[in-house]
Amino acid sequence: MSDALKASDLLSAWLRGLGEVKDRADATIDAYRRDVAGFVKFLGEHHGEAATLQSLSEVTVADIRAWIAHLRREGVQATSAKRALSALKSFYRWLDRTHKIDASAVLAARGPKTPVRLPRPLTQGDAAQIIEEVGLQAEAGSQDDWIAARDTAVLTLLYGCGLRISEVLGLRMSDTPLGETLRIMGKGRKERLVPVLPTARSAVGDYLRRVPFALDPEEVVFRGARGGPLQAGVVQKAMRTARSSLGLPASATPHALRHSFATHLLEAGGDLRAIQELLGHASLSTTQIYTGVDQARLMQVYRKAHPKGDG
Known about the structure:
Blueprint: H1 7-22, H2 26-47, H3 53-57, H4 61-73, H5 78-99, H6 104-108, H7 124-140, H8 145-161, H9 165-169, E1 181-185, E2 191-195, H10 198-210, H11 232-246, H12 254-267, H13 272-279, H14 284-287, H15 289-305
Antiparallel strand pairs: 1-2
Helix pairs in contact: 1-2, 2-5, 7-8, 7-11, 8-10, 8-12, 12-15
């Protein structure tokens, strides 16, 4: 193809391929579009003319650094800038395959450093207490006991199986009744098998016996008060109310229950690679952040208990 081929046309072709072949989520493709389109616009302004295949092929590490610096000056957070660079690298890998350009400069570029933020899990006692409290508050605020059973089942799956809220709310009736394991399709269409604790099976079974709606096999399990699919915001609101009643910090969110699942397994001697598989992390480095939580707690206990500590 001509070197004068517009970068915007190349971007459109790449995004179409992602949607058709990679089966990426619409939100992911939209994020990629914004990130790479932003770079294409920057490159055009940088050179004083619309970006083409030729100018894309001539991009240097210095150009990438200038773009990242531009993003940061515009107020883009370091994590978002790293995500944008990741999207650009994906675009350049495609250009390398389809148009034989040298992508080495872009692939070698490094994003800004980001602070490592440790997850803030709940204690085992707090996790159990907040699940109970959410159920009790749902029961008190509704004439329908199935709402309390629903909320209890959702939170029990988050904590007992380490699922993401989207994964819990995406469960289909065809997945029930729950067995000893559950097949989950997670981020990036990555499939994993997670064990289901008896308490989780019992909680979901209790909800299904009470839910007043007749549901087809392909419909989602968890329903809102009017019968539509349950929204994540409803679960998040229930957690906010419960943590306020219990005096727990703002970090006590539905996702914190997933963090708690991983942290408590690690504290009990769980294997890091096994935990990686259970969480559905693509990289072990993502799971390794929980070792920092474990070490942080260890140091906290040490400081309080040791005669020379701060406590």
